[in-house]
Amino acid sequence: MTQSPLPTFTWHELGKRHTQPEALVLHLCTAGELPMARRRALAWQAIVPRCAFAALNVAGGATPASNSALHALIRRHMVHLGLHDGQLVMIAEGRAALWTLGLVARSSALCPHAVLADLPCMEAPLLPGRQNATCSLRFVQHRLSEDPDNRQFHETIRTLRRAGFDIRTLLLPDGAGPHARAIAAFLVELVAIACRSAATPDPEQSA
Questions:
Q1: Mean pLDDT to the nearest integer, 52-67
Q2: Between these two residues, 156 and 2, which has the higher pLDDT value?
Q3: First to last CA, the chain
Q4: CA distances to 143, 159, 179 from 174, in Å
Q5: What is the pLDDT of residues 130-146, one digit of tens each?
Q6: Using alpha carbons only, how large is the chain's radius of gyration in Å?
Q7: Nearest C-alpha neighbor of 66 from the set 6, 5, 126, 26
Q8: CA pair distance 36, 29, nearest whole angstrom
Q9: Which residues lie below 8 Å from residue 206, measured CB to CB, with a gap of 6+?
C-alpha cells in the first residue's frame, strides 16, 4: 500500500518587517494560496500596522506528529519575534481552516486566536481536547453543497462553545461579495485582543 507523503511546512515572511511587533498575523495556506496571502498582507498592514505578517504553506495531510512539528515551527518564529501565543492571530480558509482548527481545538501548548473561513465538513465529529480555552475564534462561512443547511457547521460551533471558546460567526449568502471584508473586520478585532495581551507573557515561553 502506498503511504501518503509526509506534510511539509514552508514559512514566508510577508510585507515590511516590523521591528517590535505587538502581534503576528499568520496566514496558513495550501498550494496556490500564497499569492493571495501576500496581497492580503499588503492590504492589512494599513489597518493593523503594529503587526508582523507571515504565511505558512502546508503541503500534505495532517497527522498527530505533523501537528506537533507545526506547533514547534510556529513557536520558534514567535519567540524570534519576541511574542507569546496570545499575540498570534491565524487566518485560514477551506482545507487550511481544518488544519488550524486542529491546532486550536486539540490539547496542546499552542493557543492562537483565529479567523476561519469556509470550514469544510469533517469526516468525524470534532472532539476538542482543550477545555476553558482562552483563545477567540471567528468564523466566516458560506453555505457548502455538502452541508446546505449548515447543520454540521452549527454542530461544530456548539461543540466549541461547550469547550469554552470565545466564538463569533458570520454566515454569508452565496457569492464572494463580502467575504474579504468580513475576514478583515474579524482580523482587526482579534489583533486588538492580541495586542492587549502583549504585557502578559506566556509563562512557558518565559521559563
A1: 76
A2: 156
A3: 45
A4: 7, 25, 10
A5: 666 678 999 999 888 88
A6: 16
A7: 6
A8: 9
A9: 84
For the chain, list the domains and their CATH numbers.
8-206 (3.40.50.1820)
Task: Return the ∠ at Cα 73 (arms to 195 and 8), rounded to 5°.
Answer: 130
Neighbours of 179 (CB within 10 A): 16
Query: Residue 30's CB: how many other CB atoms inside 10 A?
Result: 16
SS (H, E, C) the chain: CCCCCCCEEEEEEECCCCCCCCEEEEEEECCCCHHHHHHHHHHHCCCCCCEEEEEEEEECCCCHHHHHHHHHHHHHHHHHCCCCHHHEEEEEECHHHHHHHHHHHCCCCCCCEEEEECCCCCCCCCCCCCCCCCCEEEEEEECECCECCCHHHHHHHHHHHHCCCEEEEEEECCCCCCHHHHHHHHHHHHHHHHHHHHHCCCHHHHC
Residues 191-199 have a mean pLDDT of: 83
The set of cell numbers assigned to 128 is 476538542
C-alpha cell at 123: 469526516
